[in-house]
Design a protein that fits this description.
homodimer; about 400 residues; alpha/beta; Aspartate Aminotransferase, domain 1; Aspartate Aminotransferase, domain 2; 7-stranded mixed beta sheet; 15 strands; about 35% helix
């Protein structure tokens, strides 16, 4: 019988999802027709821009003509999209990224989770905490996480403490890691990393030869000028940081799947067995050739239009809509006397449970307000005592939810 | 410094591609304007069906309406596509596949290469040979391949001999493997596996508890009724075989990226550390949740139309066109007195070099006929002495090539 990777037998949050599902089912059984407002999802509600679909329809017409048909595209993505990214998302901020440092993908998660492929199993991984459990799971299945201890943490992972008193900014670890996951604007806390904090982390990474995997999925939500638009605004970051970005949240691409990864050519890793260092950009290109596909020509043409004046204006509109939702929720949470973070440069609000337990808060939201939120445990053990609200839902639903929250009795 | 997976430093065929590129560049430098006919690519030339794009345009219109917008889809794929696959590609052949045994993906390679994620590193892998070197590379990077020996084979991989005298059908290995890669219609040999041979292999897999990873990318090219349309036509195959399929070659989806994998729920693997067996279907679902995205709603709607009467007729037309190309090439190769296999139930023709060396044949094709073919070494050391021709090119180009081949002097 084929031997399986036993790491897959370990539990990744399934128990938490089961518990949520059970609670919802129980609620539904009693309140069959109660209109439940889902503020638990990271999925977006605004549709695609007509400009995007227009470009995609045009690209599709090309695909039906024999002379204009496109089969396999370049494995790193089409130059028209890469060039637009370089120009609008980096040159605008006086950051130089070369086209061969950009890799188009199906979204942040694909590459953030897949990045472990080119890293040795023995790297010591650190992550901010709370954090998307996909990063943890990716390291569990590649046997980099050690064993799960009673507190719900993995023995080989360094969890960076992010105290609420400090707006959930991570503290430097006692033990030097090889790789650090950072994610700002953060999911779930909604906090951003100010320039001077980011400078400290880049310096730490340079001084300690640490690789930063920087998840910038939500960077379009940043309106605060003191927060960098890319980690590469920080001097030296191109030596240590890989940045993961996406069109999912700012342009409604959650269902189209298009994002990209920046791997600067300056970053090297070390091979023990060969006793030499190697370029991560080149290794990733090798992996792409073996493992991956890029999104179709059609979708890349759709993404390209996001960099036109209309596209950029439309993204701004989208972001304003969601940040408007966040402002509505902030006001309501304040009126209810709840303590929260985020919702300013981020679509997420991280709310402290006044009862201590996130599950009690989850139950109260469900039963009294008919609102679905995410219990903090979904983002690891340090999420305990918090719940996450998403403002990516439809505005009329968010307003309805806000009214209920503002009127609830804590 | 982060430690890299040193397996990536090993060479995967790069030297062969370099050698091909150098030869082409040299040719181009001398014969600047000679019209080179590329018969080396597995990429298709026929455009998308208007029916496919019509469905995709309709789906795109849904994506711009707030009420009809689709964000993230189900991670296994949309039921409308899964149900069509179950009905038309399996029920038609009296094979029962449940909808939850189908996983929509971005194409065969994604899952065939990614499948190793859920398998233990210590599995002994066997593969037919010659074969797509992506399968080998996938096992090299996950450290399952051992060391590369002088003959170009990896020490831990069992290479199944496929003698030309036996139409490249594989022989049973001396050592029992845990996992076997089979691929029919085969790339590169163009040979198919007749029913009775497939029965022998399924029996071997059941008797020896071996997992078969069956690459059926080219199954639509099968016109011979003695060749099964799916491995699940063979009794017992649902206990041992995973089948990988694609819309790339039969429907022009090489640039859209859509395929699917069948993982029957009966198949289990064994966990050493947990001392128990586990269901591969469930493990794969877990992996999907952590690692992957499915193709967009738009592309899945496009794929769905391939199962309409028009879609099925159109696929038949496509296949006939490419098989027509193959027949043209067969005739020309015969006239030139060359020995070849394939090109009947497959788009590929595998031609024995009359000079012994594939490179000499490659040079002759390039310089005398201005035709680009693939030297057999691209498919592993046992490809030596052969070249591959693809009939997936445009018909007028194929006819031009055929005239040149028929007139060449061996």
């Amino acid at each position: 019988m084929a031997l399986i990777n036993s790491q897959f037998l370990k539990v990744f949050n399934d128990d938490i999802q089961d518990r949520i599902d059970k609670k919802i089912n129980r609620f539904r059984a009693i309140h069959r027709d109660a209109p439940l407002i889902a503020l638990d999802s990271g999925d977006v509600s605004l549709p695609l821009s007509p400009g995007v679909t227009e470009a995609m329809v045009k690209a599709m017409a090309e695909m039906t003509g024999e002379a204009t048909f496109k089969g396999r595209g370049p494995m790193e993505g089409y130059p028209f999209l890469i060039d637009a990214i370089v120009k609008y998302n980096f040159q605008t901020y006086k950051v130089r990224i070369d086209p061969d440092e950009v890799f188009i993908n199906h979204g942040t998660k694909e590459d953030l989770v897949g990045f472990g492929d080119i890293l040795h199993r023995d790297n010591r991984i650190a992550t901010i905490d709370p954090v998307s459990q996909d990063y943890i799971a990716a390291n569990v299945i590649s046997n980099r996480a050690g064993v799960l201890n009673e507190s719900g943490q993995w023995s080989h992972i360094i969890y960076l403490e992010c105290p609420k008193e400090n707006d959930f900014m991570p503290e430097f670890p006692k033990l030097r890691p090889d790789v650090i996951y950072l994610s700002y604007p953060n999911n779930p806390t909604g906090c951003v990393m100010p320039r001077q904090v980011m400078e400290k982390w880049v310096k730490y990474a340079i001084d300690n030869e640490v690789l930063i995997l920087f998840d910038a999925t939500y960077k379009s939500f940043v309106t605060d000028p003191s927060v960098p638009q890319t980690i590469y605004e920080i001097k030296g970051a191109k030596k240590v940081a890989i940045e993961f970005r996406s069109f999912s949240k700012n342009a409604g691409f959650t269902g189209l799947h298009c994002g990209y990864t920046i791997i600067p050519k300056d970053i090297t890793g070390y091979s023990f067995s060969a006793d030499k260092s190697a370029n991560l950009n080149a290794l990733w290109r090798k992996r792409l050739g073996i493992k991956n596909y890029t999104p179709s020509y059609i979708i890349q043409r759709g993404a390209e239009t996001l960099f036109s004046p209309e596209g950029l204006a439309w993204i701004r509109e989208n972001i304003n809509y969601y940040l408007g939702n966040a402002a509505i929720l902030r006001r309501a949470l304040g009126e209810a006397g709840l303590k929260y973070w985020g919702g300013v440069n981020s679509p997420y609000l991280w709310v402290e449970s006044p009862y201590g337990s996130s599950w009690k808060m989850f139950d109260k939201m469900l039963e009294e307000c008919n609102i679905l939120c995410s219990p903090g445990e979904r983002f690891g053990p340090r999420g305990r005592g918090f719940v996450r609200f998403s403002s990516l839902a439809n505005q009329s639903r968010v307003m309805m939810a806000a009214t209920r929250i503002a009127e609830m009795k804590i």
